[in-house]
# Entry
Amino acid sequence: MMNFTEIRERAREVLTGNLVHNSEYFYTCPSIGTYQHQWLWDSCFHAIVWSYFNPENAKRELLSLIKKQFANGMLPHMCYWKKAKGVFPRLGDWLFKRLWPEPDRSRITQPPVIAEAVTKIYDTTQDREFIEQILPSLIDYYDWLHLERNEQISGDGLVSIIHPWESGMDLLPTWDYIHKITHFFTLRAGLWLSKLIKEYNKVDWQIDRIKELNLFLVKDVAFNVIYILNLEKLANLCDLVGDQSRKEQYLSRAKKAQKALNNKCWDDETGFFYSIFSLNNEFLPEKTISGLFPLILDIDRNKIERLVNEHLVNEEEFWLPFPIPSVAKSSPNFNPRGSSMVLWRGPTWFNSNWYIVKGLQRHEFDEYAQHIIAKMCEMIEISGFREQYNPFTAQGYGAKNFGWSTLIVDLLR
Ligand code: GLC
# Structure
């Protein structure tokens, strides 16, 4: 059995091996073999882990990210700093990169984890100067989310995503309901994903036109939970620099979003949270890991207990030998096998585990949290730091030496 020190050392090697830098940029790519560009939420997770090994790297990673921030405040989900190498990465670029209006970044965002990453860096370094340097970008980003993705779409406090990639859970079966794919296969989904970008290009990415098109407008549970959590972190950062009025504003946005999440995404009959269509608030009725994310928040005890007892530790749903699968076993769309092309349709991912474990610890389900952490160590032992794991066998799928799987370090401290 690998011990804590060995896992930590292996994690450090993974992150170090994935560093990409020159005088202009400095980031950790998710995986040299598969994903060579800079991704938004990956970089935030990497920064969180870097804060244990080398906080300067964590800072540089985030400072590179904000270099590609749009004038309106949006942080792109991908920054293309350099040309990809190798067959698979180049195929990805050939298929998608050329669709974006800007050659060096995408026009969509990803779950807003950055305030949490900055907070982690501050907790480790107490570096106020860094906070002062990066805070204006964070403010612009979360204000953009509020204005463009909340106020201009439905105004109930929840933010909408306009493309499956924004969820960070690209091919989740939840999206099948929107692109009306009855028999999923990646090529078809890929064509639809690129079609969305092409349609948005035609309306010049204006949010009112995107709303009219209504091709993909979703209030995703996990995205919103991360948004709420990060608004709270951002409020603390504002407090730190003495900006009380912003602090209050972000806390009140978080509160409003949480209220709407409880009212609109919770289904009392099944005791679960579902993502909803943004314009009519209808449920997207698929049980996925996204619906467990509210465990991280301070929501009422009854809901927490139902999520844990009826779903998380239910062997027909999420309590599989190597938890937590991205889709409940009971779903007809559940597929325990993944690949570089089939993502988020069943296998276990470490970033979602990291969130759920923290939620369990927050609500005093320490035994379950410990069980998941022990299983994560076993997965690393069996398959190394992979992108995804088979929830029955721990077989690894997709990218190797995958960056955010090093989040285990933050759970083992
Ligand atoms: C996949 C994941 C996405 C991640 C990216 C880079 O597309 O679905 O969440 O950001 O890979 O790791």
About this structure: The beta strands are 19-21, 26-28, 38-39, 78-79, 218-219, 266-267, 272-273, 276-277, 388-389, 396-397. Residues 128-151 form the longest helix (24 residues). Residues 30, 35, 39, 41-42, 168, 170, 343 surround alpha-D-glucopyranose (CB under 6 Å).
